[in-house]
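CO-FOLDING WORKSHEET

Operator: S.A.
Ligand of interest: MGD
Run index: 767
Mode: holo prediction, single chain
Checklist:
[x] sequence pasted
[x] SMILES validated
[ ] output reviewed
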Amino acid sequence: MSIATHWGSFVAVVDSGRLVRIEPRHDDPAPSPIGPGMVTAAEDSARVLRPAVRKGWLDGEPRAHGAARGADAFVEVSWDQAITLVSDELRRVRSRYGDSAVFGGSYGWASAGRFHHAQGQLHRFLALGGGYTDSRNTYSTAALEVILPHVIGGHPWSYQSRMPMWDEIAENCELVVAFGGLALKNSQINPGGLARHRTRDLQRRCREAGVRFVNVSPIRGDVAGFLDAEWLPVIPNTDTAAMLGIAHTMLVNGWHDEDFLRRCCVGFDRFASYLLGELDGIAKDAAWAARITGIGRDAITDLARRLTTHRSLIMVNYAVQRADHGEQPIWMSVVLAAMAGSMGRPGCGWGAGYATMDATGVARGRAFVATVPEVPNPVPDFIPVARIADALLRPGEVIDYDGGRLTLPELRLVYWCGENPFHHHQDLHRLTRAWQVPDTVVVHEAWWNTSAKFADIVLPVATSLERDDFAAGFSDPHLVAMPKVREPAGESRTDHHIFAALAARLGFEREFTESRSESEWVRHLYERTRAALGGDDALPGFDDFWRRSTAELPALTGPVPGSFEDLRSDPRRFPLATPSGRIEISSEEIDSFGYDDCAGHPTWFEPAEWLGADLSDRFPLHLISNQPASRLHSQYDNGDHSLGSKIRGREPVAINPSDAAARGIESGMVVRVHNDRGGCLAGAVLSEDVMQGVVQLSTGAWWDPVRPGVSGTLDRHGNPNVLTADRPCSRLSQGPSALSALVDVEPYDGPLPDVLAFAPPGLAPPG
Ligand SMILES: Nc1nc2c(c(=O)[nH]1)N[C@H]1C(S)=C(S)[C@@H](COP(=O)(O)OP(=O)(O)OC[C@H]3O[C@@H](n4cnc5c(=O)[nH]c(N)nc54)[C@H](O)[C@@H]3O)O[C@H]1N2
Ligand SMILES: Nc1nc2c(c(=O)[nH]1)N[C@H]1C(S)=C(S)[C@@H](COP(=O)(O)OP(=O)(O)OC[C@H]3O[C@@H](n4cnc5c(=O)[nH]c(N)nc54)[C@H](O)[C@@H]3O)O[C@H]1N2
Ligand SMILES: [Mo]
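OUTPUT RECEIVED:
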């Protein structure tokens, strides 16, 4: 039987109704090792087996009381009781405080599957019930999503179809300069699933075609070894300065593409004044950039020359913008490509997010596939996604966002479904304080991870292995059947089943379910897809598809709106969707916002935390909390593959051998990574591939506080978000800036505490 996950498709071996093994698909050239490790997690001791309610909440103690959330025991209740508690509380909060007091932003990845999409189900349920405060943008790319429409126009994600695809790069490009690299570990993933992993072979094809790669990144491994990339270690968060130095060199040597800048862009002159130092007295020349970035002056000059004399492509990844002033490297990378002469030439120019998933650069999109029908949300309120702790701690405060102003709403009931805020948010100690504020936190989870332990009501959900569905990934041309391969653990139910029961109690079951059973819904979404794409000519009937496990979608054809090739060929005929119709090297609109942290053209702003800050005297190491190779975020941290990567039970932290030696740290030692916000234990790995002054600790180890609910308490397991800052990128995007954090590391010589991240909380008997 087939299985579809965000990390690819697999085959389930089931024996007498028992899931025995998960195997790679024979036609997947690069299957992810995350898949096979899902088997033991499905029935480990961390599974939530029955609905559970926090004891203090159930006892009706004052609803916001000190540090109880996260520290309290739980009481298991029947489904009937759980449905009563949640529906009564929704009713109470809505009638007393209004519908905007319900927070349903619930950001996150959940699982593959078109019907059982956790957020889709939650939003449909909450919208039908009166509405909810939503969140906007993503933790992935908030800064990019807000800045790019100002600079190149179009939908925030339209760049993914406008940038060159890998096969075009192989055919046409000579030089790729990748800011933040193009790590293959990340292309294990594709949101919504995928049939076959293609990025590795496509990258290989580029190398075989003679494309040269330059990896501008603090970590050598951000580029696959077979690409033979040159490595330019860069001081984290200084990419904008590096790009400015390259741009200055192009300008003063007259190497820049004047024709393209004049015909297809606006605002170059103003930006050039900034580059030359006419606005602030500082020339952004190669020597200036070298001092800030740690890249040699000659290397900067050399890049300027090679970018303008070769058919070149500037790549920028997402991590560079998950940082203080994260808008700047994105904007500046577009400007640099426009100057270099390759923008709008086949396989060249500019692109973002290559290899961040097995979709970006692989295909320009895919045909329509139906989802759970959305219901318009009657509540207009929203928060920028990463401002959740601010909203809880400072309701009523007015903040800037993309030229507008918005008031942080007062949130009383927080409903999370399919996401893990105690994984994804920065500064978890601050989040813990914010988490004590709402009256009630409801979470649907399959495992007792930190977000479940910090909730009031935990409803156990069936995993993607435990329900029928079908998958369609981003830009992947396949539909993959997802038959149930095991029974739901304990009393767990699907999200849909839970919401249907709540909707019944609240009087809108028919509207929610449209009187379809779950299997009827799955068939219905498939048939809607088939009808929209042309019926029999496009896709087999549902039963046929289910038997065959996969179906190929019709290819997507047609012009690419906002294409840079069209722009270069005729900017009048093919204007971009920006105010000027051209690439905005300077933006009058952004300038008019009057922000002190995002000016009218790309600008070097010193990050609040970086190796050039005063704080580096006390915390001299820059923390790179990047995506984990061994799992998807926090998902399947309890799976065999992730567990196998731990060092003495802790998350590995990579450190340069010279930094380790200076601290008496040896390979395999348990260390304490710390700053003023908190500290965590981790297992040291010494690596020359990590530049000096940098430590790398992936996200996603389930947070394991020694004293849950107590601010600053030590984390036994290695979650970097106890160290990161909850600081917006700028007033423009209000995005998360996880990658701007300074720390220090020391050997941990206290008695080693057991890791309890995967242990369920205390479960008190009812009554
Ligand atoms: N420091 C730092 N922090 C970061 C980042 C970083 O680079 N550095 N990266 C950020 C980024 S890019 C992202 S996208 C976020 C990711 O943050 P999240 O998307 O919140 O992370 P996940 O671990 O994928 O959380 C998904 C949760 O949903 C649960 N789940 C899965 N399927 C279902 C389902 O069908 N129903 C229900 N009810 N639950 C389900 C899983 O068990 C898991 O707990 O993290 C962000 N946080
Ligand atoms: N295996 C796996 N793959 C994933 C995910 C996962 O959880 N697991 N998550 C997926 C998601 S949701 C997303 S959004 C994407 C994220 O894609 P990215 O944000 O691109 O991925 P990261 O791994 O966070 O960062 C990539 C590299 O950027 C480098 N970097 C960090 N800061 C800087 C900087 O200031 N300058 C430069 N030049 N380089 C820097 C780091 O060395 C890091 O290894 O990945 C996706 N892919
Ligand atoms: Mo992401």
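REVIEW:
The domain at 614-747 is CATH 2.40.40.20 (Barwin-like endoglucanases).
The chain has three domains: 48-139+375-480+487-537, 164-360+561-585, 614-747.
[x] output reviewed
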